[in-house]
Amino acid sequence: MSRFMSPCFTGLEAYTPGEQPQDQQYVKLNTNESPYPPSPAVVAAISAEEVSRLNLYPDPTGRVLKEKLAALYGVKAENIFLSNGSDDILNFAFMAFCDSERGAAFPEISYGFYPVYADLYHVDCVKIPLKEDFGVDYRDYCNIDRMVVIANPNAPTGMEISLAEIEEILKTNPNRIVLIDEAYIDFGGTSCVDLIRKYDNLLVVQTYSKSRSMAGARLGFAIADAGIIADLEKIKYSTNPYNINRLTLLAGEAAVESNTYYMENARKIAKTRENATERLRQMGFTVLDSKANFIFAKSNAVSGRVLYEELKKKGVLVRFWGKGKIEDFLRITIGTPEQMEILFAKAAEILQEQKGD
Ligand SMILES: *Cc1c(COP(=O)(O)O)cnc(C)c1O
Question: Best label site of 18, 110, 231, 264, fewest CB within 10 Å?
């Protein structure tokens, strides 16, 4: 740190992204990317001709993409906000709707970026423990009078809360935003998007990074009452109006046209997940019931750290935190069936080797 940094940030603990090795030597099951490529239409949208137009700014309103997403989700374009990945939307939401008086609440075990944003904006936040079974207890968020942020399905557990439970949280916090982060919704969960008609405090956030195979393009969107969207637009136009580049906008539009392809991939991934859950349980793992494109699992024989490190030596990368209640758990992204076979084989080898020690 230099001596020029504002003192209000010197204590800030930044988010640590998962490892992104650039040499492609790993079976990469650590950051919940899709194992499937973007659709042919998306690849074709990034033509040499479009690249040659990069001298021009993109449309800051993202009008065409907003209209396509609105049609897909049965809402109006005024109900859609677009941004540079959904992290950007989370950032804007904390900036817009929280401060030292307006606090936030989120699960203690959830997406690691929530506490970072809360710190960034000096937001008074409560981190609510999960239930014994790792589920979110919706009652903890009723009448809390803070911005509620819940990933549904939650990460890294993969577990879901019901629409009725979300509705209770919305009803009992009418003067606060309830942000439901649906990054993993397409893998078998039930979206709460339709509730935006009934609740003007609901902010649903989704991303192209997981089910739509576009983590590298950086595109996220939010769906909410037009009032909330206008607030987010105000923040965007006060920070970086051109925050989505031309190529990403085009890719995002083409991906909406290819929705069937992506939803089919999501179904395939869900099927692979069910099989992986079964297989790992047979190998003596505890595996939580997941509705996401990852599973949260721990071995009954080998510590999380040993398993993570040995898998890495054998070329399989998974996500490991190694602290607290989740100390021995690994978060394993669902890859192709072939990638999962490699994971099972390497995990079996490790269990065998550790037994021999
Ligand atoms: C991956 C993820 C995001 C962020 O994704 P972007 O790539 O920034 O769109 C947001 N929330 C959760 C819970 C995630 O897992």
Answer: 264
With contact defined as beta carbons under 8 Å apart, do 92 and 230 qualify? no
Q: Where in the chain is the domain with CATH 3.90.1150.10?
A: 17-37+260-356
CATH class belonging to 40-257:
alpha beta
Determine which residue's CA is closest to atom 5 belonging to ligand 1.
Answer: 86
The residue written with tokens 């290819």 in the block is 258
Distance between CA 342 and CA 357 in Å, rounded? 23
pLDDT (tens digit, 9 = 90+) per residue, 94-115? 999 999 899 999 999 999 999 9
- Over range 320-344, report the average pLDDT: 96
CA–CA gap between residue 136 and residue 130 (Å, rounded): 5
pLDDT (tens digit per residue) in 334-350 = 999 999 999 999 999 99
CA of 219 to the centre of ligand 1 (A): 10
> What's the token pair of residue 201?
């405090």
Strands 178-181 and 202-207: parallel
For residue 334, give the nearest of 10, 28, 109 by alpha carbon.
28
Distance CA 288, CA 90 (A): 26
| Tokens encoding 37 | 């490529």
* Overall pTM surpassing 0.85 (yes/no): yes
Q: How far is the CA of 151 from the centre of ligand 1 (A)?
A: 9
